[in-house]
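User: I'm writing a tutorial on reading structure tokens. Could you give me a worked example: one chain, its sequence, then its tokens, then a sentence or two explaining what the tokens reveal?
Assistant: Sure. Here is the example chain.
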Amino acid sequence: MDVLLDNLDLFREGFVGTLSLTATSALLALVLGLLIAGFRVSPVPPLRLFGTVYVTLLRNTPLTLLFLVAFFVVPQVLFPGIDSFLLAVVALGMYTSSYISEAIRSGINTVPLGQAEAARSIGMTFTQTLRMIVLPQATRTALPPLSSFLIALTKNSAIAGAFNNVDLFNIQKTLSNEGYDILVIFIWITIGYLIITFAISGLFRLLERRMEVAR
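And here are its predicted structure tokens:
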């Protein structure tokens, strides 16, 4: 308990850092994932090709490699002096978006094709059909895997601590150097991650119950 009480400000800073990184990356991942899922089911071949290449490339690239590219290639080639937090958000968000897009696409595929055809027969565009008819129904199916991917995102955010970002995992280096028991440090860090992941899980369970009532 002394480890926590003696370093409460440091733990709070790390917790807020992990929370900020997770929330911002999750928002980016959801937006990109929804967009890429739309590309994947688009009637426009170049968009489908782009979506397929995006998902295939990112899903088969180790997250650590994406971080290395983001932190050591992007600043030198494209954006010198870019903030490390932003680089971590982009790496995490893009990586997770490839999984989220597949979850959304799978949900879209569960919606009967006849509903999309009926929407087109009354003059609705592809975008209108997707937004008003297909996605509201696909969301019910996509919620469980989305919850799992966002929980995985929370845990993956620990990699950012090795790239000059202040988060829960990063503070263990400071505390270890001060001579605290590494086992106790990791226990408190684990509790911090559990608080965030349980909150995400609870939020999605609530959403699933509301979707069930809506049926």
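What the tokens reveal: Residues 92 and 156 are 8 Å apart (CA to CA). Residues 8-40 form the longest helix (33 residues).
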